[in-house]
Amino acid sequence: MQLTHPKSVSAILAAASCTLLGSPVQAQETVEDWQFDTAILYYGESDRVQLVEGVFNANKDFGNEQIFNGKVVIDTLTGASASGAVAQPGVQTFTRPSGNDSYQIAAGETPLDDTFRDTRVQLSGQWTQPIAEDLRASGGLQVSKEYDYLSIVGNGSLAMDFYNKNTTVTAGLSYALDSIDPVGGRPIDFSSMIVDSGQFNNTDAYQQAFDDTRIYGSEDKDTVDLLFGVTQIINRRMLMQFNYSFSTSDGYHNDPYKVLSVVDQQGLTQDILHESRPTQRTKHSVYWQTKYALDQGVIDLSYRFATDDWEIDSHTIDSRLRFDLSETSYIQPHFRYYQQSAAEFYNPFLLESEPMPEHASADYRLGEMTAITVGIKYGMQLQNGHELAFRLEYYQQDPKNAGFDQPGALASLDLYPSVKAVIAQVNYRF
């Protein structure tokens, strides 16, 4: 959300090196006025999820590197989300997560649950200040609440400057406690979806069968993240940053709204099961970023490699080229490429003739995929000193077949449809 038009190369580098772990670090010793950033973002997938998000960010420098940052985020999500079940040559009937209704999916169509609706409110605050010469501390708290999800995150970091502030070494720690209480309760791992197709004598009998597949009440997940980073000013034009991060989580990792199909040798669905994921996950990632100040702009290039014990390996290349059109306006093309391998327990479907695995999920977000984002941003400084920017991007995600045979009827169906989306954003800074 930083829209400042830098007046010099040194200002560009100062802005580029502002933070690790999301906590701003500035070098001003004078007290500055409050600075506010606002943004409205729209994300829309074709025939799927629609997101509208509003962000209000406040930043205050009290002098001597004592800085407060606060943020409010409100977003709403609507639309249809892929359930994980496979398409079939005939009409399919599914029960909604609440158990109070059912819906049908036409032949050949990817099963989507169109009741995906939620509103999220997130509040966060961060305080940064020096605690010794060339040593700064930062701490913050973030609370995020959705209808069925509560997340509380605390973080702290230390940043030490060396060599006349040309090198900054950072270490950070965060702890997150997430609590989920799904609509309709938490499905028991690998329990069958209960569909009322006339086999129950009354409503009570159906409800009892549904309740037998559920665990009611909330479940928790704990996540600890560690980050170690080095930011180095190479010369008056170039800055580099290297990070290593470690994350471990324990608790409820299932998506309670995802299912997977059990098919026979003809590819016809015989059962619909609720997914099962491991209760622990450990992740490692390394990150490199370079910013280079041109006479009329900035080149920003980064690469991230991530791996975890679910056997998901990912590569991300992100590039931006900011070009100053004038003293008060700029454009910034953006390109991002992402590629990941499938989780070891990812299965687009299960075969009824094979033994039940320990864990399985058909969530395409855990499968093999590539994704690209291309777009452009235009920003300008207004006569009153405020700043306005517009961003428009196209996103396409292409799931891949990670080596699974498609028996019978599945051979002629698209089990890995692409996800296409448009992203539009307006920023205003004052």
Keywords:
elongated; DUF3570 domain-containing protein; DUF3570; 16-stranded antiparallel beta barrel; 4% helix; 430 residues
What topology emerges from the helices and strands here?
Layout: H1 9-16, E1 19-20, E2 23-24, E3 35-45, E4 50-61, E5 67-78, E6 81-82, E7 92-95, E8 102-105, E9 112-113, E10 118-132, E11 135-145, E12 149-162, E13 167-180, E14 186-187, H2 203-211, E15 214-215, E16 219-233, E17 238-251, E18 259-263, E19 269-274, E20 280-294, E21 297-308, E22 313-324, E23 329-340, E24 350-351, E25 369-381, E26 387-399, E27 419-429
Parallel strand pairs: 18-24
Antiparallel strand pairs: 1-2, 3-4, 3-27, 4-5, 5-10, 6-9, 7-8, 10-11, 11-12, 12-13, 13-16, 14-15, 16-17, 17-20, 18-19, 20-21, 21-22, 22-23, 23-25, 25-26, 26-27
Protein name: DUF3570 domain-containing protein
Signal peptide: 1-27
Keywords: Signal
Question: Your description of this structure?
Answer:
This protein is mainly β. The chain has a single domain (9-370, 395-418), classed as Porin. Helices cover 4% and strands 56% of the residues. It is built from two helices and 27 strands. Strands 3-4-5-10-11-12-13-16-17-20-21-22-23-25-26-27 form a 16-stranded antiparallel beta barrel. Strands 19-18-24 form a three-stranded mixed sheet, with no helix packed on it. Strands 1-2 form a two-stranded antiparallel ribbon. The N and C termini lie close together (12 Å). The model is unreliable at 1-28 (pLDDT under 50). Keywords: Signal. Residues 1-27 form the signal peptide. This is DUF3570 domain-containing protein. Pfam families: DUF3570.
